[in-house]
């Protein structure tokens, strides 16, 4: 029997060692290779191994590999992804390099044009990678041409295969956590518990929000796991790993209630405090029975995309929820002891300032309705039209966006341009070409006052006295909406160093 092809899977550094969670993309890909007996994977995680470039080169020098696979998210992961790809190309010029994940899915043309990228997998890689590994090893162009979602190079020309349907993701065996060394080092102390584990139960999302990378990745499809699989995973987390709480990375946790009930029953039995992404409409529609299970399962916090107080804008971006539902859900969460963590997109390309001010007013109203509501403020940075899923692109004509001087915004065409600071900020929803310095300052000031007045419960590191002092100091500004130049808070903050959820969060 010929030897199985081998791939080195790399997660370039994107966060601190303390914030490192299971590199789920790589674990899912390694599991898919095992399941299909198509290959074997070794994993280098740059969040844990800080010298991951040397570690990757070392692994390639030591063992035999047929390919390198790199997971790349837009924003701060791009520069280390470029660096490791270049280093590998230099040392091992014949080693095929494949990029997958959100960046190459959204910016396929830029990614495949890079001289150090040979293959790009768009969308989930569980089905594509096993086929790619075999086809690439055999240099079988006909087989490569049949892999849905693959972009590749043939005699120097880029070939872009059509996207395919999204098949079932996880299989019936546990993810190969042993490939990470001791998986216990990925457990973290969080507000959920002493040993929080990260897990993805369902994949995808059935919604088509135009601004969201998830819609671009999954094209509006989702798959829930069978209850038995979730039970097996939770049992392993609790009994073998010693985890006491779970952060569900599912793109959108609460799907149709009838499908959710068997999962909630399992979770109620395990009763491990948890966090998830959710939607206002789904939570508002839950029956009393479902809420009873949610209570027993100990849902602590739900991250809900509120986005805007503007119903028309929500409709335009195909959010599918309304501002009154945002208000209702914070009240509902309060009744059920769940903290709503709301994210907003301020400073949209049109009516930028007025929309921002309206959002600030709305946030204050929501805080009055439920003071425990946590708030994450992002700048609205629409996806380039070409990034959207092919099926969604056809439905709406592209809406051009303009910079401060009224010129159409031209998105980068190369990986290196996307790695420049202003486009990293764009990908992180931190800045956009239509913002002027005054509005930037205004947003920063509002956020400073808000987070000092209401420090997040997710912050376990700042001392209690420091948080209380900031709360008191920020009180009058917040009460009287005096957000301008909160110099005393900035100064005090330097001493206390409050955690910023939009940087250290998801
Ligand atoms: C964990 C996480 C992080 C972690 C890092 C994860 C890591 N790489 O170590 C942290 C917290 C650092 C992070 C940061 C950011 N994140 Co993040 N993050 C996530 C989250 C919650 C889970 C990722 C995950 O593990 N998914 C589970 C795995 C199984 O799925 P997957 O990653 O999609 O992998 C599959 C495919 O993408 C593909 N694939 C992936 N890699 C590869 C590689 C190869 C070779 C192949 C063939 C295929 C392939 O196959 C995989 C299996 O099917 C996702 C949301 C989500 N649920 O996915 C957001 C998400 C990926 N993040 C996102 C973003 C934007 C960010 C930020 C850049 C910006 C921000 N403000 O949030 C920040 C950076 C912040 C900063 N200033 O530093 C967006 C990406 C969308 C986009 N427009 O690009 C997401 C989708 C959240 C969202 N809904 O907006 N994030």
Q: Can you describe what's shown?
A:
With 506 residues, the protein is α/β, with parallel strands linked by helices. It folds into 2 domains: 6-160, Response regulator (Rossmann fold, 3-Layer(aba) Sandwich), CATH 3.40.50; 187-504, pyruvate-formate lyase- activating enzyme (Alpha-Beta Horseshoe), CATH 3.80.30. Helix content is 42%, strand content 16%. It is built from 22 helices and 16 strands. The chain has helices spanning 24-35, 52-62, 78-91, 102-106, 108-113, 128-137, 141-145, 213-218, 227-241, 257-270, 280-285, 288-297, 311-316, 323-336, 352-369, 390-393, 415-418, 421-427, 437-453, 464-479, 487-496, 501-504, and strands at residues 6-11, 40-45, 67-71, 97-100, 119-121, 150-154, 157-160, 188-190, 193-199, 203-204, 222-223, 245-248, 274-278, 299-307, 339-346, 374-379. Strands 2-1-3-4-5-6-7 form a 7-stranded mixed β-sheet, sandwiched between helices. It has a 7-stranded mixed β-sheet with strand order 8-9-12-13-14-15-16. Strands 10-11 form a two-stranded antiparallel sheet. Strand 8 (188-190) and strand 9 form a beta hairpin. Helix 2 (52-62) runs parallel beside helix 3, helix 10 (257-270) runs parallel beside helix 12 and helix 20 (464-479) runs antiparallel to helix 21 (487-496). The radius of gyration is 23 Å and the shape is globular. The two termini are 44 Å apart. It binds cobalamin. Cobalamin binds next to helix 1, strand 3, strand 4, helix 4 and helix 8.
């Amino acid at each position: 029997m010929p030897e199985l092809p081998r791939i080195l899977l790399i997660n370039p550094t994107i966060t601190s060692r303390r914030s490192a969670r299971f590199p789920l993309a790589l674990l899912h890909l390694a599991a898919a290779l095992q399941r299909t007996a198509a290959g074997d994977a070794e994993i280098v995680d740059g969040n844990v191994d800080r010298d991951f470039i040397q570690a990757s080169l070392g692994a390639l020098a030591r063992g035999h590999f047929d390919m390198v696979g790199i997971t790349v998210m837009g924003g701060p992961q791009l520069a280390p992804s470029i660096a490791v790809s270049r280093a590998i190309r230099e040392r091992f010029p014949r080693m095929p390099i494949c990029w997958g994940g959100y960046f190459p899915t959204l910016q396929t043309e830029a990614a495949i044009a890079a001289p150090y990228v040979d293959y790009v997998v768009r969308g989930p890689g569980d089905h594509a990678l096993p086929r790619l590994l075999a086809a690439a090893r055999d240099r079988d162009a006909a087989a490569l041409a049949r892999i849905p979602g693959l972009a590749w190079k043939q005699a120097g020309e880029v070939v872009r295969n059509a996207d395919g349907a999204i098949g079932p993701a996880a299989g019936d065996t546990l993810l190969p956590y042993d490939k990470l060394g001791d998986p216990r080092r990925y457990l973290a102390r969080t507000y959920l518990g002493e040993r929080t584990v990260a897990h993805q139960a369902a994949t995808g999302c059935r919604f088509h929000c135009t601004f969201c990378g998830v819609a671009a990745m999954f094209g509006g499809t989702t798959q829930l796991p069978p209850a038995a699989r979730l039970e097996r995973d939770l049992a392993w987390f609790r009994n073998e790993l010693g985890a006491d709480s779970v952060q569900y990375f599912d793109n959108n946790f609460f799907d149709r209630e009838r499908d959710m009930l068997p999962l909630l029953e399992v979770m109620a039995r395990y009763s491990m405090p948890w966090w998830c992404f959710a939607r206002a409409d789904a939570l508002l529609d839950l029956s009393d029975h479902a809420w009873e299970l949610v209570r027993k399962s100990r849902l602590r916090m739900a991250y809900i995309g509120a986005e805007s107080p503007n119903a028309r804008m929500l409709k335009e971006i195909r959010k599918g929820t309304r501002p009154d539902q945002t208000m209702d859900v914070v009240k509902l969460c309060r009744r059920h002891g769940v903290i709503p963590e709301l994210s907003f997109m301020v400073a949209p390309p049109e009516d930028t300032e007025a929309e921002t001010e309206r959002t600030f007013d709305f946030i204050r109203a929501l805080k009055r309705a439920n003071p425990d509501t946590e708030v994450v403020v992002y700048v609205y940075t629409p996806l380039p039209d070409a990034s959207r899923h092919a099926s969604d692109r056809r439905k709406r004509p592209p809406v051009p966006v303009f910079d401060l001087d009224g010129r159409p915004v031209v998105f980068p065409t190369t990986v290196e341009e996307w790695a420049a600071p202003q486009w990293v900020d764009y990908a992180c929803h931190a800045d956009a070409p239509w913002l002027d310095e005054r509005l930037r300052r205004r947003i920063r000031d509002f956020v400073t006052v808000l987070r000092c007045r209401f420090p997040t419960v997710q912050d376990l590191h700042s001392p209690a006295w420091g948080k209380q002092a900031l709360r008191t100091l920020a009180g009058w500004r917040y009460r009287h909406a005096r957000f301008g130049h909160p110099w005393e808070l900035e100064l005090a903050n330097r001493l206390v160093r409050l955690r910023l959820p939009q940087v250290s969060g998801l």
